[in-house]
Amino acid sequence: MKKQIAKIGGLTAILLSAGLLQANAVGNGNHMVSTGRTSQPIGHYEYCKQYRSDCRIKSKSTSAPKLTRKRWNDLVEVNNFSNNTIRPVTDFEAYNREEVWAYPTSFGDCEDYVLMKRHMLMQRGWPATSLLITVVRQPNGEGHAVLTVRTDKADYILDNLDGKIRQWNHTRYSFLKRQAAHHSGHWENIKDLKG
After folding, report:
1. Among residues 62, 83, 179, 188, which is most buried (max CB within 10 A)?
2. 3-state secondary structure (DSSP) of residue 145
3. Average per-residue pLDDT in the chain?
4. pLDDT given at position 42
5. Is the dihedral of CA 2, 26, 58, 72 positive or negative?
6. Alpha-carbon distance 147 to 101, whole Å?
7. What is the pTM of this model?
């Protein structure tokens, strides 16, 4: 019996080191932990008045999809396409006012990149419950929006300021809030690892 346990323990260690098996993701910080409902950003509120159906997506099942090689390639392709196609422009420069969330065609700010990436991934079959608009604070104190992509392995960040896709806990940001996985019109606070 002890030999069987030792074999199982050794196999688990090999799988963990190869990245084929993951320890409890919530316990090791690979996934964000929400701490309850919070206010919706004004830009998202205005966006939802125009795109009502996108803000009424509800789901009882919020389990994260399995991260396959194809899904990873989806993330890389969509992130690269958006970051390389859209020219960064502030809302004030584009619309002469702040907090306009819109689908970009040639220019946009951080929320617009997020909307584009989310839309493109949903077209590739990703569930809305795993593609969450997220508000963060940059090291300089400025607010910023990124797309959190929930998977069974970890929560990954697609960011127009960083071409590399990183786990949320390997970014330089402080995480504030994100869309709720169970309802695309609701928002939740995030328990940040740095705070």
Report:
1. 179
2. strand
3. 87
4. 95
5. negative
6. 14
7. 0.84
162: tokens are 């960083």
pLDDT at 71 over 80: yes
Mean pLDDT of 184-189: 97
Q: Amino acid identity, residue 65?
A: P
Question: Cα–Cα distance between 155 and 164 in angstroms, integer?
Answer: 14
Distance of alpha carbon 22 from alpha carbon 17, whole angstroms: 9
- The structure tokens 């090689």 sit at 69
Could you tell me what percent of the chain has a pLDDT over 70? 85
DSSP summary character for residue 156: E
Q: Quick one: pLDDT at residue 193?
A: 74
Tokens of 80: 């690269």
SS3 123: helix
Sign of CA dihedral 45, 175, 20, 152: negative
| 3-class SS of residue 152 | coil
φ/ψ (deg, to 5) at 96: 65, 25
Answer positive or negative: Cα dihedral of 158, 126, 121, 37. negative
Task: Residue 119: count other Cβ atoms within 10 Å of its Cβ.
Answer: 15
- Residues 22, 64: contact at Cβ < 8 Å? no
